[in-house]
Amino acid sequence: MELESEMSTAEAWASAFSLLRADIEAQLLAGAADLGLSLRAEQTAQCVRYLELLYEANRRMNLTRVPPEQAATLHLLDSLAVCRAVEMGAARRLLDVGTGAGLPGIPLKIAFPSLTVTLLDATRKRLDFLDAVIAELGLIGVGTVHARAEDLARSSAHRAAYDLVTARAVARLDRLAGWMLPFVQPGGAAVALKSAGAEAEIADAEAAIRRSGGMLAQTVRLTLPGSDIVRLLVVMRRRGRAG
After folding, report:
1. 21 and 113 within one domain
2. Residue 238, number of CB atoms within 10 A of its CB
3. Residue 154 DSSP SS3
4. For residue 103, what are the contacts with CB-CB under 8 A and spacing of at least 6?
5. Hey, which of 27, 36, 42, 92 would disulfide with 72, CB 3.0 to 4.6 Å?
6. Could you tell me if 95 and 191 lie in one domain?
7. What is the pTM of this model?
8. Which domain holds residue 174?
9. C-beta of residue 230 within 8 angstroms of C-beta of residue 237
10. pLDDT of 61-90, one tens digit each?
11. Cα gap 104→77, rounded to integer Å
12. 49 and 126 share a domain?
């Protein structure tokens, strides 16, 4: 009976999500176009399937508190908005620090498949979920690393090895800068996704950014497509010339 109940719950969830699918696809395509992106049918399907896997797993573990009907905006488009802060075509290796449920790393990998993406998190359970997502979506050139950022930064294989480092909803910027910038190669960028109202936090972090070998290049203020939600994209550059 317990197994039957679990199967019934899973079937009910799949049915409920299928009712949202068309709306999610429409929001994603329209929002991506507003961001200057054109997603192929395969990429759109991968994004929607990712959300389906995310919310299915969220019934068993704490991955997100965003309602599914808001996920296209608050998860997918929020992640893809990074393309408005840096030139994604120039990026080759991306590290997503404190990736959690795979945001923004997974949507960025789907939208920019030539990227080599590393998803970093200190919680093994989250990475197990992401490993399953990567396999299910058939993504190539993306992997997970189980470590704390401050520990991994001491590894020669990762220190100053990425031209783009991202982080979303991880910590205050003065701490986050010290976790992100050691991974950025000279001339590369770190992009921290912050909510509206974080201007004082950003200003307070400038000294920490300099101590970490970086500089505050710009803060891009962006309203997420199809919403009134404002996102601040904080771009930090690693001092020095690219090799």
Report:
1. no
2. 25
3. coil
4. 75, 78, 79, 96, 168
5. 27
6. yes
7. 0.93
8. 87-238
9. no
10. 999 999 999 999 999 999 999 999 999 999
11. 9
12. no
